[in-house]
Fold this protein.
Amino acid sequence: MAGEPGSGKKRATIWEVARVAGVSHQTVSRYLRDEGGLRPATREKIDKAVAELDYKPNLIARSMRTRRSNRIAIVLPELTTFVPIPVLKGATAAARAAGYITDVVGLEGDERRRAEGTLSLLDSQQIEGVLSFTPLSDEVIAAAGRRPIVVYGEYDDQMHSRGELADGRPAGMIVRHLAELGHRRFLHVAGSDDWASAVNRRQVYEQTVADLGLENYGVVEGDWSVASGYEAARDLPVNSGVTAVLAANDYVAMGVIRGFQDRGVRVPQDVSVFGWDNEEFTRYFLPSISTVASDRETVGGQAMARLITLIRDEPQPAIAVEGLFTLVPRASSGPPPR
C-alpha cells in the first residue's frame, strides 16, 4: 500500500491528487471535507485520482486541525463469544470509505447502564456518533440531543437476532422451491422459541404450507444445535411420508442429515434437507447443504451510512432490504422419491 510503514512507498499528498485530477488543491480539500457544491464531473475526476494514487487522508492531522475525532463507536450489548462479524465488517467498511475510524464497544448491564455508557461515550467528545446494534431507550435518544445516534437494533440483550435479520420470509421461499420440485409432506425442526428469528421462521413455514395446500407433518421443538437435528431425524417414524425437512439453521440441518444417514435414509434421494445461514462448512459437508444466505454486510453498511449522514447533517438515506436473502440449493435437496 502506498505510504504504509515498511512499504518503501511515499504516501500520496493532496497536491499530487490535485495534479492528477487537474484541479486545485483547494478543490481537493473541499472534496475531502465533503462540503458539497462540486460539480459531478469534478468529483468524478478526483474520485479517479484518489483511487489511482491510493490516497488516504491523514485522519490524525485532520482531527487536530478541525478538532473532530473522525471516530465512530459501534455499540453491542456486551462482548460475548458471539460477535456479528459480517454486520460489523459492512459497518466498518462503510465508515472507512467515508474517512472514519470505528471502535467496537460492548456495554454490559441492563438498559439503564447501557444508556449511561452510551451517553458517556458521547460526552467524552472522543467520538462523533454512535451506531448501536442493540436497543436503546427513547430517553437515551432524547438526552443525546443533536449528537448523532443511530439505533439499528438487529440484536437484543442476549445477541439474539431481530429486525431484518430475523425476517422469516425465506422459509416461504424454501417451501415454495421444494414444492416446485414435487415435495408435498414437510417437517420443520425449529430453533429456540426465545429467538424472534426462530418464531418468525416457524410461522412463515406453517403459513406457506397451508397456503399451498401442502402437508405439515409437524414441527420439532429444537434449540439450534446439531443434536436437536440428529434426534429429530432419528425419531421420525419410518412411515411418516416426509420427503422434505426445513431446518432452523445449518447446524440443525447437519444433524438432520447425519441422523438420516445413520438410519440408512438417503439425502436427498429419500429426503431433502434445507438449512439456513450459509455457514462455510455447508459447502464441504457430504452432501453439501442447501441453505439460505443473508447479506449481513449490507445491513451493517446501510446502518453506518445513516449515521454518517446524521454526523454530516445530510438527508437520511432509505434502508433497503430487498434481496437481503438468497436461496442456495445444493446437493442435500432435490426432487422427492418416485
Observations:
- The domain at 164-294 is CATH 3.40.50.2300 (Rossmann fold).
- The CA atoms of residues 6 and 12 lie 15 Å apart.
- Confidence is low (pLDDT under 50) at residues 1-8, 59-67, 154-163.
- The chain is about 40% helix and 15% strand.
